[in-house]
Amino acid sequence: MNAFKRAIAALQPQIGIWQALATPYTAEICAGAGFDWMVIDAEHGPNDLPLVMAQLQAVDGGATEAVVRLPVADTVLVKQYLDIGARSLLIPMIDTAEGAAEMVRATRYPPFGIRGVGAAIGRASRWDRTADYLHRAQEDICLLLQVESQAALENLEAIAETDGVDGVFIGPSDLAADLGHLGNPAHPDVQAAIETAIARISACGKPSGILIADERLARHYLELGASFVAVGTDVSILARGTEALAAKFKSDEQAKPSSGAEPKPSVY
Ligand SMILES: O=C(O)C(=O)C[C@H](O)[C@@H](O)CO
């Protein structure tokens, strides 16, 4: 059973962590930290199918749901990631209801969709050891789509209301860029768009999600009704944590990061 899928369907808050270090070792460490879900990022993390599978194996059986973010909205990749055993998917850059419907079809076997039937040799069915996988798979597949552009905001209800979409994730960094505020998701225009999007998705009866490493904003979005909120990334925790530790023992000049820039608070 996919407890994460059921929790967000009931609009129960689910707290997550973003994984972009792309190692089974760090995935396993984070999976024991107490989060409800974790993203294994194959869009911006240096991941590929074998490495994502190794991370899925490392966290298998734990209480943290692994949500695999695909590199792109591609029906062939959906098939491949489902076949290696990913059951909760996050698909970036969905701008239209047609794109949403295509992703739904990609997760479903005929006659309801176009997912190729190869599970008998795939980890998804545990190599045909899972009874009736072909007819039961859909119950636990959780499809989360990312809206992160002006176009997506214009089509937000149509995307959210698409049958088979289990949740809508707002991508603040890309949304900021498309709204003309590259690198500044904290801009008032972007924040207003995020707040409105959370309300609009909720009005469609669907759970909304986001990634935000700023505690105040994370709590604010949860209060607004966001359900699946990732509150940090493994990369930023490691980078900022090691910088802070070095700074405790090194002189001001020696402690600056190699770039020479002042360490900045990580928002995303
Ligand atoms: O647009 C966004 O923000 C996201 O989709 C999340 C980021 O991609 C994440 O990788 C942190 O930058």
From TrEMBL:
Q: Known Pfam families for this protein?
A: HpcH_HpaI
Q: Which GO terms describe its molecular function?
A: 4-hydroxy-2-oxovalerate aldolase activity; aldehyde-lyase activity; metal ion binding
The record's EC number reads 4.1.3.39
The record ties this protein, via SUPFAM superfamilies, to:
Phosphoenolpyruvate/pyruvate domain
Cofactor(s) annotated in UniProt: a divalent metal cation
Q: Which reaction does it catalyse?
A: D-glyceraldehyde + pyruvate = 2-dehydro-3-deoxy-L-galactonate
InterPro entries hit by this protein: Aldolase/citrate-lyase_domain (IPR005000), HpaI (IPR012689), HpcH-HpaI_aldolase (IPR050251), Pyrv/PenolPyrv_kinase-like_dom (IPR015813), Pyrv_kinase-like_dom_sf (IPR040442)
Q: Name one GO cellular component term.
A: cytoplasm
List keywords of the entry alphabetically. Lyase, Metal-binding, Pyruvate
Q: What class of enzyme is it?
A: lyase
Q: Which GO terms describe its biological process?
A: phenylacetate catabolic process
Q: Which NCBIfam families does this UniProt record tie to the protein?
A: HpaI
- What does the similarity note say? Belongs to the HpcH/HpaI aldolase family.
Task: Tell me the protein's name.
Answer: 4-hydroxy-2-oxovalerate aldolase
Report the source organism: Croceibacterium atlanticum
